[in-house]
Amino acid sequence: MKIRFGIGLGADTAPRHLAEIVDRLESSGVDSLWFSELVYSPAVDPMVGMAYALARTTRLKVGTSVAVLPGRHPVLVAKALASLAALAPKRVLPAFGLRSAIPAEREVFVVPAGQRAEVFHESLKVLRAALIEDSASYAGRFFTVRGVAVAPRPVPPLDIWLGGSSAAAFRRIGTLADGWLGSFLTPEEARQGRAAIERAAADAGRCIDADHFGISLAVADGELPEEVAAAVRRRRPDVEPGQLVAAGWDALHRQLDAYLDAGLTKFVIRPVGKAPLDGFIDRFVEELVSRQN
């Protein structure tokens, strides 16, 4: 299986720095660059960021980590992805989630109250049909489309990955997705998540590629800053922060070994703390590019 490491950009990455980041990653052998859905921040929109990075490079892959699908019309999302894939074949890595991780941003992705999961389910079906079929039609509770003809269709079809860590998310991934990009999970939880996804896929008569399981991880440049540890405790009070955010690169390598043993092979690594991003990129290249196979 192919082990790959990409860099995830955070909320503080200003657009004026993006050109330098992209050029550095392209020239350094980094596999991929990932843009998060961060509406109320300086970070660029994921689709805009992917288009910009693809236009400046010939090798670097780009992805969303993760973009919110419910609240967007899936046909328009399909058109955007198909356009990117036509301009940069085999370099577009879409991953979607149920909702924003930031509560204040959830109101901008409008769906009927209490029905976000159902909307997500239908959105994924429409998205996949639009990307694969010459003339797609779908009639559901939330979407009805006829004769959708997104062109040019990506060949081969784009793999659609999903985030999530609940039992319902694992069922959704096994039933509708091509891969999983988890987050905020221990290696053992990730192992259990992979197993649950594979069971759901088998129940649906499907098989997720063994190479299509990954996780987003964070690393600090040394000891965890207290504000980072506090944020982790708020989200996962049942887990010691150091289990989820690596306190230094040696700790990250130990975490990676454990996730690899759990069956994950794709990693999005993002920095936390106040260290300069250029220093993080230098260390990422030094520590991780050689671990790819």
TrEMBL record:
<dbReference type="InterPro" id="IPR036661">
    <property type="entry name" value="Luciferase-like_sf"/>
</dbReference>
<dbReference type="Pfam" id="PF00296">
    <property type="entry name" value="Bac_luciferase"/>
</dbReference>
<dbReference type="InterPro" id="IPR050564">
    <property type="entry name" value="F420-G6PD/mer"/>
</dbReference>
<keyword id="KW-0560">Oxidoreductase</keyword>
<dbReference type="GO" id="GO:0016705">
    <property type="term" value="F:oxidoreductase activity, acting on paired donors, with incorporation or reduction of molecular oxygen"/>
</dbReference>
<protein>
    <submittedName>
        <fullName>LLM class F420-dependent oxidoreductase</fullName>
    </submittedName>
</protein>
<feature type="domain" description="Luciferase-like">
    <location>
        <begin position="4"/>
        <end position="236"/>
    </location>
</feature>
<dbReference type="InterPro" id="IPR011251">
    <property type="entry name" value="Luciferase-like_dom"/>
</dbReference>
<dbReference type="InterPro" id="IPR022402">
    <property type="entry name" value="F420_OxRdatse_MSMEG3544_pred"/>
</dbReference>
